[in-house]
Amino acid sequence: MASASLPRMVSADDVSQVLMYADLIPLMEKTLADFSRGDGTVVQPVRTTIPVEQHQGFFLVKPGYHVSGETMACKLLTLYPNNTDRPSHQACIVLFDPTNGSPLAVMDGGHITDMRTAAASAAATKHLAKDSPRVHAILGTGHQAYSHFHALNHLYKFDQVRVWGRTPANVQKFAAETGATPCSTVEEAVKDADIITTVTMSRTPVLKKEWIKPGIHINAVGACVPDWQELDPELVLSSVVYVDTKEAAPKESGDIILSKAEVYGEVGEVILGKKEAFKDKTTIFKSLGQS
Ligand SMILES: NC(=O)C1=CN([C@@H]2O[C@H](COP(=O)(O)OP(=O)(O)OC[C@H]3O[C@@H](n4cnc5c(N)ncnc54)[C@H](O)[C@@H]3O)[C@@H](O)[C@H]2O)C=CC1
Ligand SMILES: O=C(O)C1=NCCCC1
């Protein structure tokens, strides 16, 4: 009888040496599409979220099985918005061999979460935004702000990337490290921007409809909790809303639940040609981190 060997430990450093946007963005396009096929290619239920009320945190469990890719894994993630001495999101991903059920690896999930989320937004932007965007505005200065800066720069040559955050010192730091233009208000950051990425931990809307140029694309990445919002409901209601998962969006996205907006379709359905990309309208990719 084969004896189970211990799973390999894969550190954040190991991950950062091998994970590249050049590979990850096409892989996310494929995964979003496979998830939306609806033929069992991907088996991924809506994640389980346990509120850890005593410590103002959340514990999320996200299992998934990609049948044709022969990949089976579970991400275990904590979201502690008030952390100051460590990241607000910490995760590990346990990889299993689907042929015999053996655990293969336990991988650090922090860097993977940052890059995977940004690669999914990049894939959505590629399919939903008008060609040749000039200005990218990033709202937020945390982990996702950096990964989205790099992922979208991998796809496009912007004339300008702008950044806004609620803490001026963090805006200056982000600008110094990336070359982005620091902005002191959201309005200044998003004026005439072609792509806006919201990556804040805000629970109330930070982006208003009257500040944006119509017909742009928005990656709405924060507010993955039913009573949190990043977008003004008027903006959501006047845009075409795409998601990664139609099943999770009405259960998990405060921006959709509280605005009572309709979801038009999944980005995967656009990639598969089953749904239209309304590039002449304002498009929102409400990301929930499903794929
Ligand atoms: N859709 C997805 O797949 C994923 C979504 N997320 C979400 O993206 C957001 C950013 O995540 P990280 O960059 O990892 O977090 P982080 O903790 O590294 O950064 C959070 C940023 O939000 C800002 N912020 C906090 N409260 C705010 C407020 N009230 N108004 C404006 N800004 C505020 C902070 O100053 C900081 O710039 C979070 O909401 C997180 O839950 C994170 C991972 C995956
Ligand atoms: O890692 C993910 O996926 C997350 N999804 C939504 C909440 C924050 C993290």
UniProtKB/TrEMBL annotation:
InterPro entries for the chain: NAD(P)-bd_dom_sf (IPR036291), ODC_Mu_crystall (IPR003462), ODC_N (IPR023401)
GO MF terms, alphabetically ordered: hormone binding; pyrroline-2-carboxylate reductase activity; thiomorpholine-carboxylate dehydrogenase activity
GO cellular component: cytoplasm
EC number: 1.5.1.1, 1.5.1.25
Family matches, as Pfam families: OCD_Mu_crystall
Reactions that this protein is recorded to catalyse: (3R)-1,4-thiomorpholine-3-carboxylate + NAD(+) = 3,4-dehydrothiomorpholine-3-carboxylate + NADH + 2 H(+); (R)-lanthionine ketimine + NADPH + 2 H(+) = (3R,5R)-1,4-thiomorpholine-3,5-dicarboxylate + NADP(+); L-proline + NADP(+) = 1-pyrroline-2-carboxylate + NADPH + H(+); L-pipecolate + NAD(+) = Delta(1)-piperideine-2-carboxylate + NADH + H(+)
Top EC class, one word: oxidoreductase
Family indicated by similarity: Belongs to the ornithine cyclodeaminase/mu-crystallin family.
Oligomeric and partner information: Homodimer. Binds the thyroid hormone triiodothyronine (T3); T3 binding inhibits enzymatic activity.
Protein name: Ketimine reductase mu-crystallin
Annotated organism of origin: Branchiostoma floridae
Gene: LOC118416787
